[in-house]
Design brief:
The structure is a homotetramer of 205-residue chains.
Chain A lengths: L2 H27 L6 H8 L3 H4 L6 H25 L4 H18 L1 H11 L9 H25 L4 H23 L10 H17 L2
Helix pairs in contact in A: 1-2, 1-4, 1-6, 4-5, 4-6, 4-7, 5-7, 5-8, 5-9, 7-8, 8-9
The structure holds a DNA duplex (21 and 21 nucleotides).
Chain lengths: 205, 205, 205, 205
DNA sequence: TATGAATGAGTATTCATTCAT
DNA sequence: TATGAATGAATACTCATTCAT
């Protein structure tokens, strides 16, 4: 590897280290409650140093969010690819979104910020929004595909996606805020039952 | 009316005006993202002037939230009280939470802020959390009551509450962020179908 | 008494009440640490109300100080007037300044503020200074008078005043700040010994 | 000298410059009466800039006081160390405290602030108080040592310390406030006479 | 690349004072 | 007289960003 190549690689690793630090600090203090100084300190840098790696606080935020969405996509793909029966694949894809965020509360936090129309002043608005929509579509489309293969119409398949997405999101919110404890219920059990029921409906149509 | 009475009335109206202003500003920027200056300016005051009406920024925020929850409770009660058949009452109570927030997006914004991260950093305190839980319980308990009257076991009724709550929350999020448009679907239709299906399940048990 | 006279008398009593409150609050929080609001609250008033009785915060301060000096003068006079022997009178007048402030730590606090050239920006500077000097002279002059009657020259008498004044002031400072405890000594005993010694010196000259 | 060394040196000089500015401003207005803005402006800085050099206003104040006490100690030590006869040493140590503050009115101002009210509201804390007591003890203890060597009992020596300390403090107050002029007397002459008399007393015992 | 120092705008809150009622 | 509401300036402190070194 050339010297230049080495430098580039080192630079990339530093970026990643900073991004990882940022993820942790964000998850502890919330996006709005986190200062660049805090991220820098956690990463072992002075605030000014971060500006060699990221253009601004907002740009850093954006990159952290991007990484989170990438991880979501990868996770969902790997979840389905080993399965062969359509029913199994539908079940898996219906659960994958929920499961990823259940297991990665930091990303859930980041996701909620994204959802809330936050980051308005960032000025990266539209781009980011399109990327998010794409990521979501990629993450959720397997549900529709498999549902159609099990006999659902296109419309039915599409609504199944919405319903699963909404139910997962709602349960994650309940889980994340501890509100689910009020009801002595398990979020993941609720989600699994929901998806199972939906599959039964399609099969028994 | 006495002069003193007039004064008190004027004072109350000013308080309300400030609260209304605060509602809007808070709902746009959240607790941490909103400065007292912003609220004051929006209400036509100097920052210091607000301290004659509220002890602190947090106290103001708390009052805004309280009012929002009160409105939720009142709305839900009034929705059910005129109905007589258990099925109608179950249907109405299953929808009421969703409908209130669908029609009052500002309150939805406030609600989401409350949920986020369990308000850890805000320090609005245990009291507030208990009040919120109570308000939610009051708002949702009619679902369980009516379900049992239609033949559901206590456990089933309880899970119905969780499921409705989660589904409503998820759909509201999709609606609020415009994400539901991606799927060409109507949040309220999805919610109504969900509640209807659930009622059918109970009846056909 | 006329109606007008009654009104005036009531007004005067209210003034006194406020001044008394101010004294207490000052002594608890220090002059600089005390706000008009605090004085008002302690006196059962709103801040604005005080402006009917005093022109400004500084004017209120000034009056509190005046009262304190008046009390000092009265106390010193009453201390000496019953005594007949010159030696007794010299002893009493040498101690009176110290004793008053030992027994009235609030006034000591006020006094120190006065000394420290504080209140500079008040704009009542010169007047106040002259009044203070007069009060001090009145308070201390008996020492010189009696010393001369016991045989001291005018110069010796004058220096005796300075020395007693300085020693008293220093001991009061040590007493007030608790520093005297470091030495396991009693301020009043030190003062009494000092004055006694000085009297002996004069007599044995 | 290395580049880093240069930087450190520059930084230290800036700190000193700020401390010097702070010394002056604090001595004029006291801790509570002085704003960070005022110190910053006097030092040619923005308020925020001071936070790179000191953690808080109180920390800055504490450092200013520390420096003042250090100077007192050093001065007193150097005053005595060249003398050999016990009488000379006693005389010098009895005067040193007074002389230092007579020559350094700014430090006197700082000292008086420290004394006032025992710093109750300032909250500079126990540590600071202990340090102050230690500095005073170090500054005054030579008086006792030398007195004992001249034949005084431990008790007598201890009381001599209190008496000298009090007399010096009182004279400094009179000097500092200009009150001494009222009596046409010289503070330093009064102090010297006082110490001389005390030494005579011990020798003639 | 990275730092340390600096800025300028921002934060919530307090204060002396004013004034309509 | 007295109040309650209001102002405008002040308070200590924080933050994102910049830049010489």
């Amino acid at each position: 590897m050339t010297i230049k190549g080495k430098r580039v690689k080192i630079a990339e690793e530093k970026r990643k280290m900073i991004l990882t630090s940022a993820r942790e600090v964000f998850s502890e203090n919330g996006l709005e409650g986190t200062s660049l100084r805090a991220v820098a300190a956690h990463a072992g840098y002075t605030p000014g140093a971060l500006y060699f790696h990221f253009d601004s606080k907002e740009a850093l935020y954006a990159e952290v969010l991007n990484l989170s969405l990438q991880r979501l996509e990868e996770r969902i793909k790997s979840e389905i690819e080993t399965l062969t029966s359509h029913e199994e694949r539908l079940y898996a894809s219906g659960l994958a979104f929920f499961t990823f965020y259940e297991e990665n509360p930091i990303d859930l936090d980041l996701g909620f910020y994204l959802f809330r129309g936050g980051m308005k002043p960032a000025g990266l608005g539209r781009e980011r929004d399109i990327a998010l929509n794409q990521a979501l579509e990629d993450a959720l489309s397997p549900i529709a595909e498999e549902a159609e293969k099990l006999g659902a119409t296109e419309t039915e398949a599409n609504l199944l996606v919405v319903d699963c997405f909404a139910h997962a999101t709602g349960l994650l919110l309940l889980l994340h805020t501890g509100r689910i404890r009020m009801f002595n219920a398990s979020a993941s059990v609720r989600m699994k039952e929901y998806v199972s029921e939906k599959i039964e409906q399609i099969k028994n149509k």
